[in-house]
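hey team, just a heads up i'm posting the complex here instead of the shared drive bc the drive is being weird again. everything in one block, sequence lines first with there labels, then the predicted structure for the whole assembly after. its two chains so it's a bit long, scroll down
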Amino acid sequence: MKYKHIFIIALALCLGAAAPALAHRVNVFAYVEGNDVHVECSYSRSDRVRFGEITVKNAATGQVYLTGKTDDKGNFVFPVPTAARNEKADLDITLKAGEGHQNNTSVKAEEYLSAAPAEQSAAPAAPVAATATAPTPATPAVTAAAPAPAASAAVVPMDKAALQAVVEQAVEVKIAPIRKMLLDQEEKGPGLAGIAGGIGWLVGIAGLLAYVRCRKGGRGA
Amino acid sequence: MVSISRVLVALATVVLTAAPALAHFGMVIPSQDVVTSKEKAKVDLVVSFSHPMEGKGMNMAKPKAFGVVDGGKKTDLLATLKPTKVMDHDAWKSEYTFKRPGVGIFYVVPEPYFEPAEDKYIEHLTKVVVPAFGEEEGWDEPVGLPAEIIPLSRPFGNYVGNVFTGKLLVDGKPAAGVDVEVEYYNKDNAYTPPNEYLVTQVVKTDANGVFTYAVPFAGWWGFAALTDAPQTIEKDGVAKKVERGAVMWAKFVDPKHKKK
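-- predicted structure starts here --
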């Protein structure tokens, strides 16, 4: 059966096409500005790591200060954790960009200690599409974007911008995993159905060819 | 008359032992070929005009232009140049600190240098590319010099034995059939060329202006594509030709071995 090896090659091609390309390195770079650490994650200047998972740890003890996700430009901003500042700890920042793409960088204590602390102004830093969640319920959740409004008993009227920032932040928290799911869907190679369909097509075409040849070659074939 | 024959002999000796014209190279050599850590983000750059394989220097006047292009953004660094000595001759140095991921294409445009031995001026438009913090996009961007080598091999992160391929653009167009001189920066005379043919090697650009060279041992290698500039420079009332070189430097390294 001469079509057998064609079939096998076709199958191999389909399976090969489904394998994700894992060739490129992922970069993670962090720098301090005022009280904030800015993390930039990219494959290259024009190809950023969207929604990469960030873990910020104490470089010496491995204690996790916070985790979060990069925004759609590969950026993640977080204020220097108070605990780290108190311990004068070097920060280890790990990026997981899925599928074996991982890298890490560090921010030495002197980097953030020597940076001029930002004025504690009421204006929140530009909200980033990044949510930082404290690892254990024991510690209060840290948000990397607009600071949560003061939890005082008195109802403090918030200005519109701050309110909007908080709402956007909350929506982002809910929407990020969905967005990631959609993204994962997009990035998946051909699924099993696609592969089976492709093979079906190939078999069909091979059958047609065989039929045409049969007719041309007469019955003596 | 002894003296006449003596003079003749002396003259003959002088003429015969006149050193062969060595290859000149514009040089810009960074203290590190790549920047990988924030603690070591400061790169010292040394700019000179020398014979790199023989370690013979020439005095270099302050360059006309010196700067860096990173991500399409040009930064003038001319004011940062300070005098220094390279191979006992006048040269220039600067430093540049990478603050963010990027790819710095450093370029030098020198004052034309008059070479009496060749009765012409020489100007080498010289480049070196230093990447920082994992970024590597943009290493093939032209600076826009009148004569320029555009690398087709990434000009950093290369092992010894890799091939270096580049394309010569003159006034923005590929230049065919041009000699490209290749020399090693023989620091501290670590190597001795077996004979004069091995001081400077030569490859030519093909119809598309592309040249190729396979690198035999580790260190900094310079590629100088030599063309004549369209204009002449007048010296003492006489028009002199100008050799315009497009020069690029790249480092090739050995892998690290596991200590047994």
